[in-house]
Amino acid sequence: MKKLLLIALVFTYSFHVNAQIETPQPSPTSKVEQKVGLTDFTFEYSRPGVKGRTIFGDLVPYGKVWRTGANSRTKITFNNPITVGGKELKAGTYAIFTIPQATSWEVIFYTEYAGGGAPATLDETKVAARVSADVQEIPFNVESFTMDINNLSNNGGTLEFLWEKTYVGVPFTVPTDATVSKSIDKVMAGPGAGDYYAAAAYYLEEGKDINKAKVWIDKAIEMNKQDPKFWQLRRQALIYAKAGDKKGAIKAAKASLKLAEEAGNADYVKMNTESIAEWSK
User: Fold this and answer.
1) What stretches in the chain show pLDDT beneath 50?
2) 136 and 209 share one domain
3) CB–CB of 148/113 below 8 Å?
4) Is the model's pTM score more than 0.70?
């Protein structure tokens, strides 16, 4: 009996060890990250090999939707809107499907990116963009399917597909110039009301120079005097109180109280009422 038990344990252990064996994927996965201007790109895809086969027109038929790789759908993600083929794509994640032909490919950005393989029929409501790109023959063999972004500039690049002796490139642009220009205009125009308010609030909370906070909150309120908010005036009241200006604090608190009552915000009504009573002693 002991001998039979020992054999069973050895068999169980051997099976467990064998179950842990890891073998390479036939089409290994790849994750590529690339910054173009101020836009971050990531694409995830699998890389099947040629392995002596004829790829396009055979393994990958002409005229049919291809998952553009193997295994799960190829996914591309970018954190700013981009323009491809004259069509603006919102920031987000898309599946990339392609329809290869002998002389051109149709490259499709598809909003439903989860899942494996390409759908039998594309749902046109999920097609965010279609781009036609010419096929170029390359003078060497690319064994593993490859995607990359090249021809980098501050304002765009080329999404590239290479496999066997085929190269396809899809140019795109990113809104770097518009983003930088907007940032320059904002900085050159000086701080806005929100900047002054944030700086004053930080100085109040962190116990820093309260007189600077007082100057900044006054600028924020002045710049927003056409549409003051009760929470901004509340912050002004607290800064004035901490700076020792009880008269100014009460004035700001009364203004905040009035707007809070109009907005139906009971919390700020209560806080301002209590503060006015305290600072009036």
Assistant:
1) 10, 15, 17
2) no
3) no
4) no
